[in-house]
Amino acid sequence: MNKINTLKAGQEIILSGTIYTARDQAHKRLTETIKSGRRLPIELKGAIIYYCGPTQTPKGKIIGSCGPTTSSRMDAFTPLLLAKGLKVMIGKGARSKEVKEAIKKYKGIYFVTYAGCGALLSKFVKKAKIAAYSDLGPEAILKLEVKDFPLIVAIDANGRSIYDQA
Q: Measuring CA to CA, how many Å separate 106 from each of 5, 37, 93?
């Protein structure tokens, strides 16, 4: 993801590499950990977080259905995580003005992926393991290895958003 600054809102890309899943409760814990000065369970610097809580893994599969969740639910936590090194977020839907400004300030990027296609998106996941907060069940942080994961740039590093376009 060293090409973040060259990507423009509306561009379609495919991503291969490591991403972490994290939803509401994981975000709450991450921010509480930061605020308390304790060590985070995952490295945020340069990290990619996918707002996703996969369904139970069917027998013989790597992961269950893993579609994006509504990103605005993480908006209260996002500026702090970006300040601590988070670079990439993946989800669905528009983001708040504060998040958009933080993305621009910290030169991050926000991607969306196809909602309602969790079963299809699971086919791009090649490995999955729990990385933190296993007690949260489907909201645990998972470390995923993905190949050719389809994404659309929703908010680029300059703050341009597909949601602002006519």
A: 11, 21, 20
For residue 66, give the CATH number of its domain: 3.20.130.10
Residue 37 confidence (pLDDT): 97
Give the active site residue among 9, 15, 21, 27: 27
pLDDT score at 25: 97
Residues spanned by the domain of 149: 12-155
Assess if residue 166 is contained within a domain.
Answer: no
| Residues 161 and 100 sit within 8 Å (Cβ to Cβ) | yes
DSSP character at residue 11:
-
Across the range 25-48, mean pLDDT stands at: 97
The pLDDT of residue 165: 67
pLDDT at 138: 87
Global pTM?
0.95
* The total number of structural domains that make up the chain: 1
**Has 27 been annotated as catalytic?**
yes
